[in-house]
Amino acid sequence: MADASQRARGGDTRQRILEVAGQLFAERGYAATSVRDIAAELGLANPSLYYHFKSKAEILDELLDQSMRQVQDAVEQAQQLEGEARLRRVVEALVDSLRVGSGIAMATMLGGGQLLGHDERARAARPMLSQVLGDAVATPHRELRITMAMGAVEAAVREMMSEARDSAEFIARLEARRDAIVSLVLVTLRR
Fold this sequence. Notes:
The structure is a single chain. By secondary structure, this protein is mostly helical. It has helices at about 5-30, 35-40, 45-50, 55-80, 85-100, 100-110, 120-135, 140-165, 165-190. It contains nine helices and no strands. Helix 1 (about 5-30) crosses helix 4, helix 4 packs antiparallel against helix 5 and helix 8 (about 140-165) packs antiparallel against helix 9.
């Protein structure tokens, strides 16, 4: 049985695998990045990587899940808030979650395609977001406002990605424009 320090190192290795994989996916694309590439970048043997993840697809799933968990956590926190504070917390979480999945997002955008599972997760999150935002969003056309706000975040992100050379530059651009994006999306939701 593994002791606490071995489990902690295993968790650290797992997180390092996710970080490196996300970076390589952004630089090379998902299809062009192999498990061998990820392991080599980390200085691991392939079997060591397979100890943590069964496949490249499982790594991708975990990266996408991390981003969604961040949004879900923020939605739970937002439910304790009212009005403007609730709206702001959820919109900030949507923008901030893009940092978690920036490598995946860059790989998707630069590859000109969609990554399996990304669209499904986004569609699954929409009812949850609509429910928590519901009363705080202005009427008329509440659902349309929410859809437009989410689309605005996506469009802003795609524009920043097209301007960025890599995921680090994208994250820097995202952080520099975060408050402006949040403010503009809030206007769409409130008026």
